[in-house]
Amino acid sequence: MGMDKKDILILQLLQEDSTLSVKEISEKIGLTFTPTYERIKNLEKQGVVEKYVAILNREKLGINIVVYCNVRLKEQSHKTLQEFEDYISKYDEIQEITSLSGEYDYMLKILANDINSYNEFTVNIISNSPHIGQYHSSIVLHETKKTTKFKLD
Q: What pTM was estimated for this model as a whole?
């Protein structure tokens, strides 16, 4: 990638607050506006910075339940995996879909307003997937650490 210390500083600052202006970033890293702007644009062009988002407080929005649902499929053919991913990807309640090695094939991170809405989601969506052989839900009781930042050296 060819990143130097200034690029890493830029990335650290953007991870902390992506609303910082180029001027603010340039002042913090000790470069003028134009080279800072060019570095940011280059990091975006290379795909290191994928997008800028606002991180919302889910509880203030009434989303009180986080569940990690481990899924074992009936079979692991390429067609079945793709059909399952296509089916499950369309639901906004599912925040993450991760393919796994080991006992389960996938881990789904599912958000719900309350336990009743999660139950309704599992009954109507998860259990109706033709490819799921078994699933196991773990409800999050407390989030000790939650971050979107990567350690950069």
A: 0.87
